[in-house]
Please model this.
Amino acid sequence: MTPKLPIYMDNSATTACDPRVVEAMLPYFTERAGNAASRSHSFGWAAEEAVNTARHQVAQLIGASAKEITFTSGATESDNLAIKGIVEMYHKKGNHVITCQTEHKAVIDTCKHLESNGLEVTWLGVDDEGRLDLAALESAITDRTILVTLMAANNETGTLHQVADIGHLCHDKGVIFHCDATQAIGRIPIDVDAMQIDLLSMSAHKIYGPKGIGALYVRRRNPRVRVTPMIDGGGHERGMRSGTLNVTGIVGLGKACAILNDEMGKDVEHARTLRDALEARFRAGLDHLRINGSVEHRLPNVLNISFGYVEGESLLMGIKDVAVPSGSACTSASLEPSYVLRALGLDDDLAHNSIRFSVGRFNSIEEVDYAADLVIDAVKRLRDMSPLYEMALEGIDLKSVQWDVH
Amino acid sequence: MAYSEKVIEHYNNPRNVGVLDKSAANVGTGLVGAPECGDVMKLQIEVDEDSGKIVDARFKTYGCGSAIASSSLATEWIKGKTVDEALEIKNTHIVEELSLPPVKIHCSVLAEDAIRSAIEDYKQKNQSVTENVQAN
Model:
């Protein structure tokens, strides 16, 4: 049976809203459209109550308390608020931040911005699986270090960092730990106490909620962490983030978290089954494959894979009914291949050949089978016209060839 | 990236994919580009020694859809031309025919380079043949 086309397999980029989320949000657009800051009438009270409920739902998902949750416009704002807010609040204690080369741009560019203003930043590298060397992290910490900011799971490869180990190390050293958990939430268990996370960024639209809403968790005790606000105004969110609350979005984020509080195990199992089936189909049908990132330590729903001797963008053209991205330079605005894959020490040609499949709650096994057939056929067809594949079959080591690099 | 209809058509039905005998004296082979840049083109020509015309052309390309289309178009255009006529094909002609956007102009440059490189290889081979004949 042919599934409905096109097939969406880009759930790491964003997810469709769960219909239950949309349903929960709808009344707050219309009959309950009050401002959560209006204290003088029932419309305001209803909105405030909905926001409180959502705050508890979000907190529950990460093992926090509701007072530790600040609503933002999304993970990018949360990352900015966490990093800039800590650097400003603790500038008397030190001016050194540690991060990693494979972080999301929201962290990298925030750190670069602060670096250009005089902050000292250590950019840790990763091994060929995208994993951190904890000894390198430990030796990078000095008495001037105020913040370590490292993601839970990489957005391109799904590779997991050793979040709990990092958290404990930071607390032993008295350094604040911010974790961008945007990709990890809902896909691996996250508990801010068990993992000793002090600040955590998350976004609704990666977990079947709406776009334009996210949250920042800020630890209130052991230790109490304080952040200088970035947006000044009416003092909303206990002064942490001024601006009229996006009540519909917050309700949506809360509902998305509530669904995960009940069903995350099922969700994860579903994604893992589909991802593993897709990977098994590729392995059975094709040779010269490489999984990018860690195979063992990765999100259950992501498969970042390079099809040897086939350029990613040309493959995307051949599978246009399957919505996936490539790490190829040709698909990026910068004309540079993925910086994440390059940080893994991957040859540029493997980055050019990479495709990220990320499945989710609304994918089916029929879609996986259909996509696998399409990809296998397209790879074979493109290899038939690939001079590199021909050379490889002739036993020529492509690295020994004098290429005319332009 | 939205492709022009002609790029899609060449991608779906590439002309002249294949291989000619690179050891034959009347076959010239050009290999341009680099894997780390994301595109490599191999273009081969077979020249009729009496007429000096390119009687066959084949390509294989590793690269994006525009690179595949550019090399497919190049083989189509050079067939039936003399070697000197083929050298007159410029990348701008390919850009125009395929409506390539600015970020894909390098694909057309590579196709022009591939034609030149194949012709150069053919000429070098035949120069040495001529020299050998003269030496004898």
Notes: The two ends of chain B are 58 Å apart (CA to CA). The beta strands of chain B are 27-34, 39-47, 54-62. The mean pLDDT of chain B is 92.
